[in-house]
Every structure is written in C-alpha cells, then in structure tokens.
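Lecture notes, continued. The same structure-token format from the folding unit now serves as the input rather than the output. Read the line below as a description of shape only.
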C-alpha cells in the first residue's frame, strides 16, 4: 500500500513539474530565424539569413499577447561580390518605446553594400537610417531631409513560422495593409523631434 502512495505522489509531482516547465518555457523569449530571398536593385536575387531576437515585454499591445517583443534584428549573408566573405548587420538604434530599428532594404549600389532601416516613433513617424558597409564595419551615412525613394525588399515584421521566405511571400507581406507604411524608404526623412 505504501508503494502505491509513493508512486502516485511521485507521478503527481512529475506531472506538476512538467506543467510548470512548459508554462515557464513558453514565456522565455527566444529567437525567430529564417532564410529569405532578397532581390537587389540590379535584379540579382540572393538568399540571406534573418534572425529576430526576442525579449520579455510587449504584452502591453493588444495585438501581442505573447509577452515578448523584438530586441534586435539581424541579417547575415555572403557578400555577392566576394563569395568567401560573410557579412552581418544588426539593429543599432532603439526607439523611445524600446523597439529596435527594422531593416527595410538590403542593396548594393555603386559597389557599396547598403542597409536602410527605420526606427518607428510615436505618432506614425518613421525615422530612416542608412548604413554603408566599408572595410568590415557598418558606417551610418546621414540622410538628407529629402532623397530618392527606394522600394522595400526585406520581409517586414516578425516571421510567421516559415523557415524560408521567397519573393512571392514577401510581396504579399509588403502589400498587406499593416505593412504599407513600410513599403518604401523615402522620399522624406521626417524630423520627429517635435513629437
């Protein structure tokens, strides 16, 4: 009789422990990774690796009940002009609301690898940043208040559980009504300091 009580109690404890571990692990932020096709302005298509690092928070938004939010966005790819060179970019700026900048464009223009990113400020103000890859580091190039508009070519927002995002899926994402605000970079870089 004693043996059955111990076994029953042990099984209950194991079951309770399994439930606690499941609940705790579902609240721990992690990363969202995928591969993505990117069409450069010269028509060439490359495949890059994306990683969205998540952290606790974000459940203040009704649309985000997961309890996590983006902490950092990362791009990793092989230099199309130097096949042995791996290049990595990660978000460097944080909005006043503690959200990382979002990469919108990866391109090669005038033999320079370029990333355009945006930090979203309250009131619908997108602040654009341009980064140029030179001598193994990313250098921010100040954008003027007006500049040539560029179409977004990176997947916007968090991945939907896909391991590979092709150009068609990306077109759907950019044409989505919630993403239209990010469909292009420019032609203006607003002054959001008054907001």
């Amino acid at each position: 009789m004693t043996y059955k009580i111990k076994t029953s109690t042990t099984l209950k404890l194991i079951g309770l422990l399994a439930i606690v571990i499941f609940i705790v692990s579902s609240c721990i932020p992690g990363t969202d990774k995928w591969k993505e096709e990117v069409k450069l302005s010269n028509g060439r298509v490359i495949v890059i690796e994306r990683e969205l690092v998540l952290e606790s928070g974000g459940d203040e938004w009704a649309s985000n009940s997961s309890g996590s939010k983006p902490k950092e966005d990362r791009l990793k790819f092989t230099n199309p002009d130097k096949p042995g060179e791996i290049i990595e970019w990660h978000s460097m700026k944080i909005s006043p609301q503690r959200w990382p900048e979002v990469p919108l464009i990866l391109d090669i223009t005038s033999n320079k690898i370029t990333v355009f990113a945006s930090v979203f400020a309250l009131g619908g103000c997108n602040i654009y940043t341009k980064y140029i890859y030179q001598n193994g580091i990313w250098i921010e190039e100040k954008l003027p208040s007006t500049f040539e508009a560029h179409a977004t070519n990176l997947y916007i927002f968090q991945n939907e559980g896909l391991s590979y995002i092709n150009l068609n899926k990306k077109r759907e994402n950019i044409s989505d009504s919630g993403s239209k605000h990010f469909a292009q970079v420019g032609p203006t870089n607003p002054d959001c300091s008054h907001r």
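Point for the exam: The longest strand covers residues 45-56.
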